[in-house]
């Protein structure tokens, strides 16, 4: 699997405090089946990460993970707040490119309220041939109430990333229901961990892949689409999805 959203870098945001925590996260991810992970520290007012700091921490963590013998590739990136994006220079944006792709940006969808600037920001990036990936909109109450509100930006060319813990129910019923509704509406394209800690509850993608209930569709979400986007290519067509068995998950969550 390829994980395009994680907070694996040490001492940079609300991820691990030190490099040993980063190594523990990398080890848990590799054990869960992740072969590539993008380090995407917050870039927002409370965590005003610079590209230079991200790059320094990335090299430190890469070296420590290699020394520990953990077989996982760690790439750079950033989780950029929508209101922070205008403050970044062209060079900053390129250096925060997701997985090292300067024409791919991970944008943080806010947890509260509908971002009024969403359409204009995404349209401007797309005109510059930069592809936006929206992180975890299923955790936003406005999206939970009206998932169709994402249709416009998705049809323009924006990709939507779901948090693994939403898909498999670890973040509760509302996030799970919204995540699966977005999948059914063809408004979500990939799954990532948004991991902040090494525990499988925080770092695992495997449980989310299993919760999809269709191996081909899970592969598309967790491997095929992220691989294509990181390579700057068009993702393969979405596979024909058989009836997904998710009643058990939603029943456990009290639906």
CATH topology: TIM Barrel
The whole-number mean of residue pLDDT values reads: 94
Whole-angstrom Rg: 17 Å
CATH architecture grouping: Alpha-Beta Barrel
Approximately what portion of the residues adopt beta-strand conformation?
Answer: 5-15%
User: What spatial order of strands do you see in the largest sheet?
Assistant: 4-3-6-7-8-9-10
Helix content class:
40-55%
CATH domain class: Alpha Beta
Notes on the structure:
- The structure is a single chain.
- This protein is α/β, with parallel strands linked by helices.
- 42% of the residues lie in helices and 15% in strands.
- The strands form two sheets. The protein has a seven-stranded mixed sheet with strand order 4-3-6-7-8-9-10.
- It starts with a strand and ends with a helix.
- The model has no long low-confidence stretch (mean pLDDT 94).
């Amino acid at each position: 699997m390829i994980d395009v959203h994680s907070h694996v870098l040490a001492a940079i945001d609300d991820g691990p405090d030190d490099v040993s925590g980063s190594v523990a996260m990398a080890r848990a991810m590799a054990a869960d089946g992740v072969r590539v992970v993008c380090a995407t520290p917050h870039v927002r007012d409370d965590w005003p990460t610079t590209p230079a700091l991200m790059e320094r921490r990335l090299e430190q963590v890469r070296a420590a993970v290699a020394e520990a013998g953990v077989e996982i590739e760690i790439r750079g990136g950033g989780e950029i707040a929508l209101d922070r994006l205008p403050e970044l220079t062209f060079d900053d944006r390129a250096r925060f490119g997701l997985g090292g792709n300067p024409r791919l940006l991970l944008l943080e969808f806010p947890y509260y309220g509908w971002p009024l600037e969403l359409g204009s920001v995404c349209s401007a990036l797309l005109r510059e041939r930069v592809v936006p990936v929206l992180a975890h909109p299923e955790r936003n109450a406005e999206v939970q109430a009206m998932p169709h509100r994402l249709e416009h930006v998705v049809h323009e060319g924006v990709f939507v990333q779901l948090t693994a813990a939403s898909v498999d129910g670890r973040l509760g019923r509302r996030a799970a229901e919204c995540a699966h509704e977005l999948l059914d509406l063809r408004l979500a394209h990939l799954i990532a961990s948004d991991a902040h800690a090494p525990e499988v509850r925080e770092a695992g993608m495997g449980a989310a892949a299993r919760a999809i209930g269709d191996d081909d569709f899970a592969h598309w979400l967790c491997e095929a689409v992220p691989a294509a986007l990181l390579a700057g290519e068009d993702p393969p067509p979405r596979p024909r999805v058989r009836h997904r068995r998710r009643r058990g998950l939603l029943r456990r969550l009290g639906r």
